[in-house]
Structures are given as structure tokens and as C-alpha cells.
Amino acid sequence: MGPKKPVDLEPTVLVKSLHVGFAGREVLHNLNAKFNRGWLAVVLGRSGSGKTTFLRALNRLNECFPRSATRGSLKLKLQGEWRDIYRNAMPLPELRRRVGMVFQTPHLLPGSIADNLALPVKLVLGVPRRNIASRVEWALEEAHLWDEVKDRLNAPAHTLSGGQQQRLCLARLLALEPEILLLDEPTASLDFRAALKVEELLLSLKERYTIIAVSHSLSQARRLADEALIFRDGSVVQRLSREDLQAPDTLQALLEEIF
Ligand SMILES: Nc1ncnc2c1ncn2[C@@H]1O[C@H](COP(=O)(O)OP(=O)(O)O)[C@@H](O)[C@H]1O
Ligand SMILES: [Mg+2]
After folding, report:
1. What's CA 171's distance to the chain center, in Å?
2. Model confidence, pTM
3. How far is the centre of ligand 2, averaged over its atoms, from the C-alpha of 138 (Å)?
């Protein structure tokens, strides 16, 4: 018998023949991939191999850059319904809320810890004032931050440590009810202990969300990934299962390939 398969994997992202270019230069070439809810996929590859561009293709963020061009089909299952996001236009703010992204360094809003959550919840979701505090608490719990900040919700957010700031960014994302989480090297700016806390959080979220995380670290990929996609020069050149990632000879080959 092979390894036990998780039972409740639901496909949520289907990428077919995706090409992305900037100013006439193609940087993602004919990319195909599939992701599931309940499954944590890690993207690895050298700097410049197209990892960030790939994540940005999933919520149409590449379009923020002038002269970007995207071809191919990208289907996402959102609210139970398949949508071809480059054809069946869904309003971009709605798409980007459902397919949320966290970046390498924390991007905070000015203001307090509570403001960082209350403002988007009020402005984006239109949550009435009386329900905001409970939504803020829920999001902080969801991001494993509540116990650390509950006594100082009105302190400036920039007084948090780097790891707490990154979890606050995750809390803000989660507060907006996303279904797909795109994480671009979310622990690259953190020390090891802070990174482990974020990893723990991701593992606790993965059953309920589709998570695609770019990682700068092979050991992190081994701790987190149900599957790893290896990018080289804008293409996926290898897919590795969790078992593959643990095998010592795969590891050696990967180290040579990526680093
Ligand atoms: N906004 C942009 N405008 C022009 N070129 C870009 C832009 N974003 C990325 N690129 C180019 O696309 C390639 C892939 O970049 P990126 O996706 O950032 O790689 P990675 O995240 O793997 O380091 C690089 O050659 C980069 O210069
Ligand atoms: Mg990048």
C-alpha cells in the first residue's frame, strides 16, 4: 500500500498554458499547475526564476505594472464556483480579497494594531461598527497573535516584533475572508524562532485554505510542503511530493539545482 492520501482534497486552482511577460519579454513560459484546498504547496527556485510573477498571476497583480501581458487559462474555485479569472472578469478588489497575498517584509498600515484590522474590515467588508471588535479578535486568534497583543491593541503596530508584524499582516488577510493565500517568502525577513511561529500558523491554516508559499529555504520547504514546485527560468521543472522532499538524494540534487 502506498502512503495514505488525505481524504478531503478539493482542487481549487487550475493553471493551463500560462504565459506572463513584461514589456515584450516573456518571463513565465507555458506554465501548468494544479493546487488543492487542504494542501500546502511550496514554490522553490533561484532568484529571478519567476516565483513572484507566478503568485501575482493568481490574483492579477501583474496588471499593476505597465506593459504586462498574460495569456493562458487560470481557473479558481471561489465560493464554490469555478471562475476563469482572465476571462470571466470578477471585480479586481473582490478577486484580490478572495486571493490574498502576503509579502516578504510586513506591510503595515499606519496606526494601531487594532486599526490595522478594523480599517480594512470596515472599508472592504462594510462590517458594522458594533461587530468590528469581535471580528478583530477573531482574526488575531486565527493568526495566533491574540494572546500576545490583547492587552495592547491600541499600541502602534510598528512596535510589534518582525514576526508579530508578519502575523498581523496574515491576520489582516484572514479578516477579509480569503480562500486562497499567496505567501511570497513570508519568513525571509524573520529570525528562526519567529519563522517557526509563522510556519506553525500556516500548518494550522492549511486544512481550510489553499496555500501557495514561495520559500527561500529548502529546510522550510521540507517542514511545510505537501508538494514542492521547482521553478527555473520561468518554467516548473520539477514537482516533488512530501516523501521526495525528505529523501537525502533528492535533497542533494535540489541544493545543486536551486542554490
Ligand atoms: N514588474 C516587472 N517589470 C519587468 N520585469 C519584471 C517585473 N517583475 C518581474 N520581472 C522580471 O521577471 C523575472 C522573474 O522575476 P520574479 O518573478 O520576481 O522572480 P523571483 O520571484 O523568482 O525572484 C525577472 O527577470 C524579473 O526581472
Ligand atoms: Mg520573488
Report:
1. 13
2. 0.94
3. 30
